[in-house]
Write a structure and sequence with these properties.
- This protein is of the alpha/beta class and about 700 residues long.
- It has four domains: about 1-120, Methane Monooxygenase Hydroxylase, Chain G, domain 1 (Up-down Bundle); about 135-310, Polyphosphate kinase middle domain (polyphosphate kinase like, 2-Layer Sandwich), CATH 3.30.1840; about 335-505, Endonuclease, Chain A, CATH 3.30.870; about 515-695, Endonuclease, Chain A (2-Layer Sandwich).
- Helix content is about 35%, strand content about 20%.
- The chain is built from 17 helices and 27 strands.
- The strands form four sheets. Strands 14, 18, 19, 20, 21, 23, 24, 25, 26 and 27 form a ten-stranded mixed β-sheet that branches. Strands 10, 11, 12, 13, 15, 16, 17 and 22 form an eight-stranded mixed β-sheet that branches. It has a six-stranded mixed β-sheet with strand order 2-4-3-7-8-9, sandwiched between helices.
- Strand 5 (about 195-200) and strand 6 (about 210) form a beta hairpin.
- The two termini are about 40 Å apart.
Length: about 700
């Protein structure tokens, strides 16, 4: 199919910066393009569509909610792109309307027919034949009816509190005895425990028939109101502000305060109402009034509420409609857990997830927990899985008498409850649990092991670009560095001491650490390349990250471009920099990779002529929040063989990609990366999977 263009739309009076929010929406459109592309298996395309829905939910919960707060507080100052909060909300509304329309065109025009061709049929209440209708009504009576609680709206029944993103069905009723007097309204909140996709007559022969739970409830809701006539039923849900605010200076116990705030989040201010199209105007007006949203935050949908629910199609036993299976390869020098420390005394090891297995990271902590020579383990947690083997290993280490410290970030967005649970378990096991520094999120990924060897204490460390989460490590691309280099482990020990004790302005010689030095040193490295180019020396920057927003850093990149520095940026998501503008950024190229795996590894290259190139990796995007409001760690890659791999394989493959890559143009459009007619399409993901398989054979 022909490549589509997606644009973050830069205002004409502010050509130096793309708007952050509109750039993010352009990224979500690139995800949607994967759902439309037949180069992905069919069920994977459905998953991409579901991801766009989940992404849009978070966008409203956090980004739109923040802009609404600014607007309502009277903030009218424009950002670097020249747009005020009010103007941003207006442009967001237009862009979201277009995106939602594209989502449902993709669903109805592309995916539903393709699924039907594979024997997977989606039914609505109008499509059911007599046998299917009988099955659906029986399912409703047995599985749904017992857990529904109708909430009438009347002077004696106030409007209910609707939870964040919870499915509801609003119904209109008539009393047949007095149809001309009044209509009655009731709301059916749908418990989250009920599956949103239901297979009709599961186990039966023939094509699979699937129906949304909301369709079943709309069809059968009249059974909840005996004596009344059902005249209308529509699914809807409310999205609420989910940005957790905690005044840490006033919080005597941060864990307790966050638990209290999580209970209140479901009642946060409404920021979006989604409702099925065709609802009665009077009923619609009542809902808007009761929820407290103006029309410009209401979306009438011509399709199912919450596309994220389509993710469950991935559970179907249809391997022919999914990606060919790929298992991460454990073929690194650390594949023997018993030899981990012996190996790291002689060499650094760099893993590339998900192509390289995450198991050595788990083995590193588990081996430290068992090893009688290990005296202490220190580790950060930003996000982890619900059954984390790393948490279990730290508990075992503490039970084995080792000093164990876990720095748990309780404010990791949407993972707060999970992290509170693990923090309590760790504390109960005797682990020293620390919640970081006031006013800062601890986002760095690091683990330090202290081991006695002879008469000395030796440090071993793991540093990563991604979370300590074995589940997401199977589809997020990240780097893991294991090292025993004393220059790096010394800085790591100093940082842990600052995080668990006191240290207002710690100094680090080899690590770049936010909020202390990262912003200054990144901009100094860019300035050094600018100076090299001005002096006629080779000058190049390659930077890979999720988002590029920081104004000062973008200005530094513009200055480098004007001096002649060749700059390649691999930015998966939001990019406020405008590339390819003569006299400003003509030497800057921006590409985004969106495909089978989620690009997540923040990695940077500076030519540094005439010395050795500087290669860095870490946890930080180039955004104000990462530079100034988080604890981030960016570390150097020192081993010569690993440095060659980063340059010759890692960066080279991603810059060569023509399958997953799209290029950002100066007008804000993203266009599929071009290739010559004689060239085969090249996928970095496929290349790295094949390389991992070869390592396993070798």
């Amino acid at each position: 199919m022909a490549p589509r263009k997606s644009s973050p739309a830069s205002p004409a009076n502010s050509p130096r910066f793309f708007n952050r929010e509109l750039s993010w929406l352009a990224f979500n459109r690139r995800v949607l393009e994967q759902a439309r592309s037949d180069r992905h298996p069919l069920i994977e395309r459905v998953r991409f569509l579901a991801i766009t829905g989940s992404n849009l939910d978070e966008f409203f919960e956090i980004r739109v909610a923040g802009l609404m707060q600014q607007r309502d507080s009277g903030v009218d100052e424009p950002g670097p792109d020249g747009l005020s909060p009010r103007e941003q909300l207006q442009q967001i509304r237009t862009a979201v309307d277009q995106l939602v329309a594209e989502q449902f065109r993709c669903w109805y025009d592309d995916l539903i027919p393709a699924l039907a061709a594979e024997g997977i049929h989606f039914r609505t209440g109008r499509d059911l034949n007599a046998r299917e209708l009988a099955w659906v009504r029986a399912y409703f009576r047995e599985q749904v009816y017992p857990v529904l609680t109708p909430l009438a709206l009347s002077p004696t029944h106030p409007f209910p509190q609707l939870g964040n993103k919870e499915l509801n069905v609003v119904v209109c009723l008539d009393n047949p005895a007095t149809p001309e007097i009044e209509k009655f309204i009731a709301i059916l909140p749908v418990p989250r425990i009920l599956p949103r996709l239901v297979t009709i007559a599961p186990g039966g022969r023939g094509p699979q028939r699937t129906i949304f739970l909301s369709e079943i409830i709309k069809l059968c809701a009249g059974e909840l109101f005996p004596g009344y006539k059902l005249t209308g039923a529509h699914a809807f849900r409310v999205t609420r502000n989910s940005d957790l605010y905690i005044d840490e200076e006033e919080a005597a116990n941060l864990l307790v305060r966050i638990e209290e705030s999580l209970r209140n989040l479901r009642r946060g201010a409404a920021v979006r109402l989604e409702i099925e199209d065709g609802v009665d105007p009077a009923l619609f007006a009542t809902l808007c009034q009761q929820i407290g949203l103006p029309p410009d935050h209401v979306f009438r949908l011509k399709g199912p509420i919450n596309l994220m629910r389509l993710q469950s199609l991935g559970d179907l036993n249809r391997p022919d409609l999914k990606y060919p299976p790929f298992s991460p390869v454990n073929a690194s020098p650390l594949r023997d857990p018993a030899q981990i420390f012996d190996t790291l005394r002689t060499q650094d090891v760099l893993l590339h997830h998900p192509y390289d297995s995450f198991q050595p990271v788990v083995d590193f902590v588990e081996q430290a927990a068992r090893d009688p020579q290990v005296f202490a383990i220190k580790q950060t947690f930003y996000r982890t899985s619900g059954d984390s083997p790393l948490v279990r290993a730290l508990i075992q280490a503490s039970q084995n008498g080792k000093q164990v410290t876990a720095l748990v970030e309780l404010k990791a967005r949407f993972d707060e409850a999970n992290n509170i649970q693990w923090a309590k378990q760790l504390e109960e096991a005797g682990v020293h649990v620390v919640y970081g520094l006031v006013g800062l999120k601890t986002h760095c990924k690091m683990c330090l092991v202290v081991r006695r060897e002879g008469r000395r204490m030796r440090h071993y460390a793991h540093l990563g670009t991604g979370n300590y989460n074995p589940r997401t490590a199977r589809y997020y691309t990240d780097l893991s560095l294991f090292t025993a280099r004393t220059d790096l482990t010394g800085d790591i020990a100093k940082l842990f001491n600052s995080l668990t004790g006191f240290g207002r302005t710690p100094k680090f010689r080899h690590l770049l650490v936010a909020p202390y030095s990262l912003h200054r040193r990144i901009n100094a490295l860019i300035a050094a390349e600018t100076k090299h180019a001005s002096a006629g020396r080779p000058a190049r920057i390659i930077a890979k990250m999720n988002s590029l927003v920081d104004k000062a850093t973008i200005e530094s990149l513009y200055a480098a471009s004007r001096a002649g520095v060749q700059i390649d940026l691999i930015i998966r998501g939001t990019c406020s920099l405008v590339p390819g503008v003569p006299g400003l950024s003509e030497n800057i190229r921006v590409r985004s990779l969106v495909g089978r795996f989620l690009e997540h590894a923040r990695t940077y290259y500076f030519e540094n002529a005439p010395g050795e190139p500087i290669i860095l990796a870490g946890s930080a995007d180039w955004m104000p929040r990462n530079f100034f409001r988080r604890v981030e760690v960016v570390f150097p890659v020192r081993d010569p063989a690993l440095r060659r791999w980063v340059m010759d394989d890692f960066f080279a493959s991603e810059l060569r990609d023509t399958a997953n890559a799209s290029l950002l143009h100066s007008d804000g459009t993203y266009v599929a990366a071009p290739r010559r007619a004689s060239e085969r399409t090249f996928s970095a993901h496929a290349y790295f999977m094949a390389a991992a398989t070869r390592r396993l054979r070798d």
